[in-house]
Amino acid sequence: MAVVRYMLRGCVLFFTGVFFTLVLNLLQVQRQLSFPQEVITNLFSSTWWVPPTCGTAAAIIGLLYPCLDNKLGEPHTHRREWSSVMRCVAVFVGINHASAKIDFANNMQLSMTLAAMSIGLWWLFDRSRSGFGLGVGIAVLATFIAQLLVYNGVYRYTEPDFLFVRSWLPCVFFSGGVTMGNIGRQLAMYDRKEDTKQKDE
User: Fold this and answer.
1) pTM of the entire structure?
2) Which residue windows are transmembrane per the record (predicted)?
3) Which residues share a beta bridge with 165?
4) Which of 48, 54, 68, 85 is most solvent-facing, going by the fewest CB within 10 Å?
5) Residue 64, SS3?
C-alpha cells in the first residue's frame, strides 16, 4: 500500500513538473533565452524530452524533501496548508516572470534581486535547514547540467554572463526546488494521516 501511495504522489509531482515546465518555458522563449529559433520550430520533435525530464526531476525532488525530513528527524511544520503552497507557487512563477520580463541596469543587479527573492521564498514558505541545503544542491546540479546542454548546442542563451548561461539561472533552480519540495511535503501529509488512521484501527 505504501508503494502505491508513493507512486501516486510521484505521478502528481511528475505532471505538476511537466505543467510548470511548459508554462515557464513560454516566459523564457518570449525573451529568446532558452531555445534557438530552429529548435522552437521543431518543439515536439527536437525537445520532446524536456518536459518529461523536468517532470521526473520534480517527482524526485518532491519525494526527496519529506524523506529527508524524516531521516533528519525534523518534521516540517512551517505553514503546512495548501493555501501556503499555492502562494509559494505564485512567488516562484513571479521569480521566473521577473527573470524573463523585467529589464535591469545590468546582469549583476538582476541576479542579486532574484537571489534575494529566492531566499525570501525559502524564508516565507520553508525555513528548514534541509530545504535550504537541498535547494542549494539542486541549484548547483541543475546549473551544471544546463551548462553542459548549452555547451553541446541544445540550448542557447542571449548574452550569457555565467560561463554559457545567465547568472540568474541558479536562483530559478533554487526557488523551483523549494517549491516542488513544499508540494511534495504537502502531499506526504496525506500518507501520514492514512498511517495514523491504520494505527488507530
Assistant:
1) 0.82
2) 7-27, 47-65, 108-125, 132-151, 163-183
3) 162
4) 48
5) helix
HSE (side-chain half, CA atoms, 13 Å) at 99: 33
Residues in CB range of 86: below 8 A, 6 or more apart: none
> 162 phi and psi, to 5 degrees?
-130, 85
Give whole-number Cα distances, 71 to 42, 64, 66, 74, 125, in Å: 44, 10, 9, 8, 21
Rounded to 10 deg, the angle between the 169-200 and 50-72 helix axes is 60
Minimal CA–CA distance to 101: which of 16, 21, 26?
26
- Count Cβ atoms within 10 A of the Cβ of residue 150 and give its class: 0-12 exposed, 13-18 middle, 19 or more buried: middle
Looking at residue 192, its amino acid is R
Q: Give the cell for residue 154.
A: 541544445
Q: Say how far apart CA 111 and CA 140 lie, in whole Å.
A: 15
Residues of the chain whose pLDDT is less than 70? 1, 27-47, 75-79, 104, 157-160, 162-164, 191-201
What count of Cα atoms within 13 Å lies in the side-chain half-sphere of residue 165? 26
What confidence tens digit (pLDDT) does each residue in 151-165 have?
A: 887 777 666 676 667
